[in-house]
Amino acid sequence: PTPPPLPPPPPRVPPPPPPAPPSPPSPLPSRPPPPHPCASLARPHVNWASNGCMNLHKVDFSGAILNGALFEDVDASRAYFEGAILEEASFLRANISGAIFETARMPKAKLISAHASVAVFSRANLIEADLSHAHLAHAEFVESDLTKANFEHAAAPSSDFRHASLLEANFKGADLRGSIFEGADLTGANFRDALVYETDVLFARGLSAVYCLNLRQDRTNKRGGSSRSRKINC
User: Fold this and answer.
1) Cβ–Cβ under 8 Å, residues 225 and 219
2) Would you place residue 229 in the very low, low, confident or very high pLDDT band (cuts 50, 70, 90)?
């Protein structure tokens, strides 16, 4: 007898799709850093040291009114003073390295012996400010008003004074090696005994005979003195 036909093979079932990867956890909402405990004390004539606020590192004082405030001997490095009003404020011996003072109003401020390397004072009002003996290496004073400012014996190598107003500013004995005065107004500025070699005074106005005398002495003493300006007749 003829054998019965074999049953048809079962239909092929496609394998199940792989499980979907787990969804990434939703990111937590970013939270601003907590305010500095001393920030609420910002007001005119505040004395930070007497309030136990010696560490003001990275504190934001932007737009604050701090006329006559005493920042003496405090650490305000990399703090923000953009647009702040600091008339007659005192930063005596303070550490303000890397701090931002852009567009701040600081007439008659006292920065005597302050450590302000890499600080930014661009477009600030520093009329009659006292920066004597301050440490200002690589500081920026672009387009600032420094009329009658006092830089006597300041250490300001490689600082940037482009297009600043320096009428009757006092640089007596200051270290200005490698600084840039391009387009600045130096009318009546005092450079007696200042170190000015390798300065850039391209298009600067009002250069005094004392500046030229210092530049010639630097060359005579073979201290590498030169001026990168092509517009100065020294």
Assistant:
1) yes
2) very low
